[in-house]
Design brief:
The chain has 313 residues and is an all-alpha fold. The chain contains 12 helices and no strands. It has one domain. The longest helix has 32 residues.
Amino acid sequence: MMELHLATAASAPIVLLVSLVYEGVDRKLRARMQGRVGPPLLQPFYDLVKLFSKDRIIPFTAAYPLFNYAPLLSASCALAGGALVFVVLVTGLQLAGDLLLVFYLLSSSSLLAMVGGASSGNPYAAISLSRGLSVLLSYKLPMLLSVLTAAIKAGGTLSLASVIALQAEAGGGIATLSLGGALALLAFMLCMPAEGEVPPFDVTTAKTEVVHGFLIEYGGPHLALVKIAKGVSRFSTALLAASLFLYTPARPPLAAMLCLLEAMCIAVLTITVPGTVLGRVKPSQVVRFCLVAPTSIAILSLAISLLEAGGLA
């Protein structure tokens, strides 16, 4: 247990580094798709250095403990979730229920950032929290069903290492070897733009509607931590999808590198492309979409997996 904790703590900087690299790639690709040159790939690093060098500003209407510490807790949850996935990929260490733990950590990261921003007392932040909670509940359901589908395919285990081991033995990812796994991956990926708060589902931080939403009063180190939380959470969710559904059998270090590349491709497809080419929809439309399309697909994948009784055939 202690070995897993130490490995997770040591892997957190790696996850942060890779997440910032993806954010730089994301900005560059968006710019190219829009006919612009775009910022340098290292721009996210420069932004964090600048923000951490500024003073903290706390509104007098804010609930100090929550407003001050929520960004740190949010970033910590995102880093812990992503690092845990990375450690399991590299070392194969097991923790009972780590699959649900990763899901919980990544969900908590989003929730803490919104609640912390809403505690500022700004009405726009409160509206953003209201929107965010309804959207979060709508897309977390199909994502959870997709994760459970992968668990059922692995024989009912809630261990990420066991799911990965099953794919290694089968010679390919769950999504490539079974219909239920492919549908679960589809449902999971359909929810990722909402998880990443990018168009068309960026209703919580809509600039022209709620003036950056829960981020409106954050600046300096607080904003830097929230940006870290959002960036790491986006990439960690893509890494979780790659590990659960598209694992490529190989020796652990190489397998981890392949999963990182797959996660990068998944993030480009579900974060970069939608965020560039699609316009924002209404909050009610986001909820309706997530509760209809991805949820229906996830339920179908779960039913098929139950019929297949945990096998990949």
